[in-house]
Amino acid sequence: MLDIQFIRDNKDQVLEKSKQKNVNVDIERLLNLDDQRRQLLIKVDDLREQRNKLTANITSKPSQEDIKKGTKLKTEISEIDEKLSQIDSEYLAILKKVPNMPMDDVPVGATEDENVVTSNWGDIRNFDFTPKTHWELGEERDLIDKERATKISGSRFTYLKGDLAKLQFALINFTINILGDERVIEEIIRSNNLNLVAKPFTFVLPPMMMRTDAYEATGRLKAEEVTYKLADDDLWLIASAEHSMVSMYMNEILSENDLPIRYIAYSTSFRREAGTYGKDTNGLLRMHHFDKLEMEVFSNSESSLEEHKLLIAIQEYLTRELKLPYRVVLKCTADIGDANARGVDIETWMPGQNAYRETHSADYMTDYQARDLKTRLRHQNGTIELVHTNDATAFALGRTLAAIIENYQTQDGHIIVPDRLRPYMGGKEEI
Fold first, then answer.
1. β-pairing, 202-204 with 261-270?
2. Gap between the Cα atoms of 389 and 406, Å rounded
3. Among 237, 241, 293, 292, which Cα is nearest to 270's?
4. Any bridge partners for residue 66, and if so which?
5. How far is 120 from 126, CA to CA, in rounded Å?
6. Does the domain made of 4-95 have the CATH classification 1.10.287.40?
7. CA 100 to CA 21: how far, in whole Å?
8. How far apart are CA 198 and CA 260, in angstroms?
9. Each residue's pLDDT tens digit, 290-322
């Protein structure tokens, strides 16, 4: 959530930036409710003080007048509490709709077509044969079986088999080792001129289900379009690992000395993909169930933008290590998401599709998530403030496998294993 005082002090800016994100929110109504809340809170505090004084001054059996006065105060307090509860419900519902403010360098745009490509890397391979899509190769080689998965689970599920399934775990182990190596992190920081400490990432296996209160506090629960709900429990299947990672320190105060906290998490993710009927039904790009490696960082406000840049630099480093051509895309206001202040995608070249496809995203969240999660930090001087959070994809594993298959295919239908993954495949050079 945004700070209500910030909204009050910057009403016109909040209205304009919300429109840039295609978010329609009634700021006037929000501020009116906030005024009512403030007035009622002052009044109820005054009544409680009167009641406490009345109780403190009664040294023996209360008189009828004291009882009458106490009953009247109790009734008035109860009536105001009921009004406050009603107002709070509407107030919080509107406040949670107010999006995070996009940074000044975020392009203003109404659709993803207005995202801006900021850089390209890698040479696109010239094939002396017509490259196939990853689903064509996967099915021909019996590495991807969507037909049988559809039979038992419906559309947008698959079986990964044999060496392709092993290649996924090679990617996982490769990434964990890279991000756990302080020397590599130090080199990435140095080469990108970042002012950060070279603290490695801790590997985590997070919960894959979340309670409603925790999920809502992340600003990421989108029930209708994304998230699966368990029928008989107050639990949702996570749509990405960072959702259960960012809520890890909910209602806690962290020590400034412990920051930054950097995690690399592996999880299975679940998405309904509502509204995407007929889109990317082939292959591994848009599944109901897929695996990801996600980075999550908790930091102070001074270093959070640098941490965001570090995560993007790590994404580029990992993709370059696999020698996959890619481009970096700065997302426009309408595409970054309500909770984001800034968003960057990496799109990897898929020769079988003759197109760049999104494989990574990096989200700069500022203190937007921490406010509702009540995740704070205590400075050495004793002052307390909200932490800042960042999340970013290390590898969306299915999409990365698709990119490897399409870029490393041979004319006879085999797939060359990228050099950096061969040690994790027992030295195997192709599958």
1. parallel
2. 34
3. 237
4. none
5. 17
6. yes
7. 9
8. 10
9. 999 999 999 999 999 999 999 999 999 999 999
Domain boundaries, the chain: 4-95, 112-425
CA distance 78 to 246: 37
How many residues are listed for the chain in this entry? 431
pLDDT at 6 over 90: yes
Quickly tell me which residue has 């925790």 as its tokens: 214
CA nearest neighbour of 405 among 80, 199, 162: 162
Q: Are 54 and 46 in contact (CB under 8 A)?
A: no
Residue position matching structure tokens 């290590």: 321
- pTM of the entire predicted model: 0.92
The closest of 61, 116, 182 to 329, measured between CA atoms, is 116
Residue whose C-alpha is closest to residue 352's, from 278, 427, 408, 290: 408
CATH topology of domain 112-425: BirA Bifunctional Protein; domain 2 (3.30.930)
How crowded is residue 112: how many other Cβ atoms within 10 Å of its Cβ? 14
- For residues 250 and 337, what is the distance between their CA atoms, to the nearest angstrom? 22
What is the token pair recorded at 325? 């051509």
